UniProtKB/TrEMBL annotation:
<dbReference type="GO" id="GO:0015293">
    <property type="term" value="F:symporter activity"/>
</dbReference>
<feature type="transmembrane region" description="Helical">
    <location>
        <begin position="149"/>
        <end position="170"/>
    </location>
</feature>
<feature type="transmembrane region" description="Helical">
    <location>
        <begin position="182"/>
        <end position="201"/>
    </location>
</feature>
<dbReference type="InterPro" id="IPR020846">
    <property type="entry name" value="MFS_dom"/>
</dbReference>
<feature type="transmembrane region" description="Helical">
    <location>
        <begin position="12"/>
        <end position="36"/>
    </location>
</feature>
<dbReference type="InterPro" id="IPR005829">
    <property type="entry name" value="Sugar_transporter_CS"/>
</dbReference>
<dbReference type="InterPro" id="IPR036259">
    <property type="entry name" value="MFS_trans_sf"/>
</dbReference>
<comment type="similarity">
    <text>Belongs to the major facilitator superfamily. Metabolite:H+ Symporter (MHS) family (TC 2.A.1.6) family.</text>
</comment>
<feature type="transmembrane region" description="Helical">
    <location>
        <begin position="393"/>
        <end position="415"/>
    </location>
</feature>
<feature type="transmembrane region" description="Helical">
    <location>
        <begin position="273"/>
        <end position="295"/>
    </location>
</feature>
<dbReference type="GO" id="GO:0005886">
    <property type="term" value="C:plasma membrane"/>
</dbReference>
<feature type="compositionally biased region" description="Low complexity">
    <location>
        <begin position="426"/>
        <end position="446"/>
    </location>
</feature>
<comment type="function">
    <text>May be a proton symporter involved in the uptake of osmolytes such as proline and glycine betaine.</text>
</comment>
<feature type="transmembrane region" description="Helical">
    <location>
        <begin position="302"/>
        <end position="321"/>
    </location>
</feature>
<feature type="transmembrane region" description="Helical">
    <location>
        <begin position="232"/>
        <end position="253"/>
    </location>
</feature>
<protein>
    <recommendedName>
        <fullName>Putative proline/betaine transporter</fullName>
    </recommendedName>
</protein>
<keyword id="KW-0812">Transmembrane</keyword>
Length: 446
């Protein structure tokens, strides 16, 4: 098979598998806002039950760095493919188990305990998934198109979001008693079908050539995590801030926005779910243009323009939600999503260029998963508390704007420090040894 054909197959495998993983991860967030509080935490008042459901939602993010470390180690030591198959299978089994889990009314306190454990396992799976999916796509591509190729995996997030929104949009039309008794389970159980398809696709991909070369030449690192912390701690620390605004965008609107719109504003539940579905559809269709732009221009220029554009547009989305109109809410979320989804589309490939082959899986997984732990996991609780304390949506707007500024400054630093996102072919990977980029070889962390 030609390299181009293998690159395309790897891209599709990264896209579909990641879409399934994110579908599984995001349906939990939607269920948390709509039903899990009442079913698994019924002994507290409804508001507290929703907060506890959000806390369970956040538990998945607590486990994601562990997943990045465990599967990053496996991926850097023996290859990307095995990690990706294990994470996909793990996520599917757990998601189906959540769909079949008895509620508090049936088994008492064991129900929320098991729910939290299953959510933690979900977090481990998705924590190991992301880095491998990005790399299986980008490492099969040529050096000049790596940032753009990483967008294959990033397309999985809006696709998974779209599937999750559609799944709950379909079942939310059921009468309330049917929705709370069995309807909410259907999106979780449907994951079994998607997992089988994903496993078939991923079983047919090959390891990227440079990964095989590094393993055969004994360039793989014995303890990738130790090597990352020894050679590039500052780069990882700043890299985890690059995706602050893009990683949190879905949680801002699919969890906080859904709760705010259907609660305080009074928008119909099904109407706002439709708005979220259209938002995910827009991201799925518009995000690929980021890859085209990154091929036409330097990726770093595309990233900076997108981040600068997002700052004045973020307030627009929340103010339009506050009008109570589903149409205006949809327009507002799409407007602010437009530049941010370009950052998300290029994020994986951009971070991959900042690290060498031998530790790349572990490094980008650690950076991205700690990002979600810091900027996403506490967001439902922090954002909900801000809204309650201030009584104004501007508290949430200010928080999201702060995330955008953090992303912009971090992106500029990583590009300057490592050469990631620049067109020159040898700025991020040393020509003499493809496993040793200038970013690590010449950096003060060395």
């Amino acid at each position: 098979m030609s390299r181009q054909s293998q690159a395309q197959r790897a891209g599709w495998a990264a896209f579909f598998g990641t879409a399934v993983e994110w579908y599984d991860f995001f349906i939990f967030g939607t269920a948390s806002a709509l039903v899990l509080g009442d079913l698994f935490f019924p002994t507290v008042d409804p508001a507290a039950g929703t907060l506890l459901a959000f806390a369970t939602f956040g538990a998945g993010y607590l486990a994601r760095p562990l997943g990045g470390i465990v599967f990053g180690h496996l991926g850097d030591r023996v290859g990307r493919k095995k990690s990706l198959i294990i994470t996909l299978l793990m996520m599917g089994v757990v998601t189906v188990a959540i769909g079949a889990l008895p509620t508090y009314a049936t088994i008492g306190i064991a129900a929320p305990v098991i729910l939290v454990v299953l959510r933690l396992i979900q977090g481990i799976a998705v924590g190991g998934e992301w880095g491998g999916a990005v790399l299986i796509a980008s490492e099969h591509a040529g050096k000049r198109s790596r940032v753009a190729a990483g967008a294959w995996a990033q397309q999985g997030a809006p696709a998974g979001n779209l599937l999750a929104s559609l799944a709950f949009l379909l079942v939310s039309g059921l009468p309330d008693d049917q929705f709370t008794s069995w309807g909410w389970r259907l999106p979780f159980l449907f994951s079994a079908v998607l997992i089988v398809i994903g496993l078939v696709i991923r079983s047919r991909i090959e390891e990227p050539p440079e990964v095989l070369a590094a393993i055969r030449a004994n360039h793989s690192t014995r303890l990738p995590l130790v090597e990352v912390l020894r050679t590039a701690p500052t780069i990882v620390l700043v890299a985890l801030c690059v995706g602050a605004v893009s990683a949190s965008f879905g949680t801002f609107f699919k969890v906080l926005g859904l709760d705010f719109a259907t609660g305080e504003v009074g928008i119909d539940r099904q109407g706002f779910l439709l708005a979220l579905t259209l938002m995910s559809l827009f991201q799925l269709l518009f995000q690929p243009f980021a890859a085209l732009a990154a091929v036409r221009f330097e990726p770093i220029r595309v990233l900076v323009v997108a981040l600068v554009a997002s700052i004045p547009l973020i307030p627009v989305s929340w103010l339009l939600i506050q009008t109570g109109s589903v149409t205006l809410s949809t327009i507002g979320m799409i407007v602010s999503l437009a530049p941010i989804c370009w950052l998300f589309g290029l994020l994986g490939g951009f971070l991959a260029e900042a690290f060498p082959t031998r530790i790349r899986y572990t490094a980008i997984s650690l950076a991205y998963q700690i990002n979600t732990l810091v900027f996403v996991a506490p967001l439902p609780l922090v954002g909900g508390a801000l809204l309650d304390a201030s009584g104004s949506v501007w508290s949430v707007i200010g928080l999201q704007l702060a995330f955008a500024v953090v992303s912009l400054l971090s992106t500029l630093w990583i590009a300057r420090r490592t050469g990631a996102g620049h067109r020159a072919p040898d700025t991020s990977v040393d020509a003499a040894d493809p496993t040793t980029p200038a970013a690590v070889a010449d950096g003060p962390e060395r």
